[in-house]
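Attaching the record inline, Q. Sequence:
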Amino acid sequence: MLTRANLRTPKAAAIAGMVFSLLTIVAFGLLWISVPDDPHEPGAWLSGSSGTVALALNLVPFAGIAFLWFIGVLRDRLGELEDRFFATVFFGSGLLFLGMLFIAAAIVGALLMAFAARPEELIDSAAFHFARAVAFGIVNIYMIKMAGVFMISTSTVAIYSGFAPRWLAILGYALSLLLLFGSYYVRWSFIVFPMWVFLISVYILLDNLRKPAEAEARIV
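Structure, as predicted:
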């Protein structure tokens, strides 16, 4: 009689969170050095930094795929301990963050395409300022807040389920407050999110690799 085996998450799947962290830090680092802080600037960066910005945008889809895999790793880690309420907030905030990341990247990509087609008409135009304001608002107001909510819900689940150490959960609470209330004033604040994801991923990866070794030691 044929039976279907259950799919099992690879033990090294936590690497996805590390990949997301590194790609996100590199992508936003490239954007920060290429695009001015002021959302009212006329768009002169399009002339000299389009290549760097395009490189950053090409990294975003891969970072998003890795983040989606990271969410799956966390849910697999929780297993039957997953609470419906916090699971909904955790999963929903993660998907909203990812969706807004892609939308903002698509808007900036559209600016690059429009500039390549009509460079003399786009700079300091109403269309440029509108697109720039939309992308700025999505990233610095909405997307970053969803990252904070994701950190809060994940930290809460970590404390109650024990899938991650308590100090990582407390750190998540502290950093999420920076994202929720200080992101508009501290430009580099978003960087704490991928760094926190990196720490959780490293812990999960080491724990996954440690358990088989401990099991073998008990057998011997």
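The chain has one domain: 14-36+43-206. The first helix runs from residue 15 to 34.

More tomorrow.
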